[in-house]
Amino acid sequence: MGIRKSLILILFALIMLIFIGLSIVLGYTHTSLKTAIDAFTVFDGSNEHIIIKTVRLPRALIAAAVGASLAMSGVIMQTLTKNPLASPSILGINAGAGFAVVIAVSFFQFSNLQAFAWISFLGAAAAASGVYIIGSAGREGLTPMKLTLAGAALAAMFSSFTQGVLVLNESALEQVLFWLAGSVQGRSMSILGSVFPYLLAGWIGALLISGKLNVIAMGDDVAKGLGLRIGLVKVAAALLTVFLAGGAVAIAGPIGFIGIVIPHITKKIIGIDHRWVLPLSGLLGAILLLAADIGARYIIMPQEVPVGVMTALIGVPFFIYIARRGFGAR
Fold first, then answer.
1. Overall pTM > 0.85
2. Where are the transmembrane segments (predicted)?
3. Looking at domain 2-325, which CATH architecture does it have?
4. Does residue 141 register a pLDDT over 70?
5. Of the segments 74-78, 82-86, 166-170, which one has the largest average pLDDT value?
6. Which string of DSSP letters, residue by residue, matches 78-125?
7. Which of 110, 215, 242, 254 supports an S-S bond with 104, CB 3.0-4.6 Å?
8. What is the per-residue pLDDT for 287?
């Protein structure tokens, strides 16, 4: 069984590498595989080589990192909340990040993507912290229902505040609208580099607590009976969701549905053991966002559709399917 699952991981890792290659080669400016290889081996300063090295390679790596992070954060959130539709939006992470960026643009005149990354990361962290503090209030402590309700309430509040500020400030709307739609276009390696340590910590930490998430998935009573320190594990998992989802939103803006869709697909492929679900979800999340980004380049060429719109087109039917079938979180 372990050999079969290892082969599945290797297969999808190779597929991810193929999609990274396709992302580097495909686009409005026609290039070939040979052109891409030459750009890294015998760089000649041509327009094609510059585009490949400075635009498409960073874009492909950012799409892979963001997709992997969103998918892995979705697995953790669905396990903690016992909610099969949980995603970064359910904890208010997307809304908190968006509100922070809008405030920074409207009142402090921030305008560059590098600044957006740090501001949105802090906004995501603040929103997630608020959700966990509110969800932990009361004698029962942190429960899945309270966590979900707190996340929905804060997400609605931040979204309302964001819309209110944008209505009053049209210039801010023009600056942040594309970011709020979710996109990996125009992002540089410096933006990825500034947030990458947090993403890497999130990936490693998620794999380290994967065994404990298996116990959490069995229910709090069972977990307590097995001697698991539930509170500590949930706090650690919350911190990891901030690193993963907050870092992803900081780089690419609020991209939806990957955190909802991928965990369910992964469990159908490899089972419910989080030690396998988390790494495969990362690979599938990267593949999905890479594929969506490639598709976004061709829908209305020479213009591009924000990749957040593409993931919504993919995710909405699956979201409805999950809701109708009533999948339980496992």
1. yes
2. 6-28, 86-108, 115-135, 147-168, 189-211, 231-264, 276-299, 305-323
3. Orthogonal Bundle (1.10)
4. no
5. 74-78
6. HHHHT-TT--GGGGTHHHHHHHHHHHHHHHH---SHHHHHHHHHHHHH
7. 110
8. 96
